[in-house]
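Hi everyone,

Forwarding the result from last night's run.
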Amino acid sequence: MKDIVFPRNNEKEFIQMATRLGYNKLIFVYDKDVADIKSEKIKIEKAVLVKPNKIGKVKGTVIVENSDKLRLTIENKKTDIIFNLENQRKDFMHHRNSGLNQVLAKLAYKNKIKIGVSLSNVLKAENMLRSQLLGRIMQNVRICRKYKVDMLLASFAHDPYEMRAPKDIMSLGVCLGMHPSDAKKALD
């Protein structure tokens, strides 16, 4: 089981929390190149958070947050993970604006791009915004299942206390419409 986190000079706390929660792998996401971090307890990988116009200039695992240039990001084969698709401005009259549609899903499948679901965003959302966010995530899960796009469930935490146990995240995935085997695969 792995989790994706955004450390701010608190890597040791993330490693301790991941060990307590039962993770065997952590992916630290940085916006610039950082020295390698080693741990005996857990496997550590690094990834780079990139703006859509700078994807080709980065080596390694590329993670992109949702932006206005989503189509160009998904068309780029160097992109590995896209997350926060659900944070759109406003829903349409007759359907949700979940950030993903059949055209983008087919491109993501073709380019082997994973769609990330951020638990941190769900935890930080309040009242009506949380229900809208969960509805948009459910719609994206349906689209990803229909077009066989790989999904990724992770905490995307900025603080170690935002992390949750793998089984809790897997349960949320099942509640959002994922098949249990898909939810388990989304954590591996």
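Helices lie at 11-21, 70-75, 102-110, 119-124, 127-146, 166-175, 180-187.

Cheers,
N.
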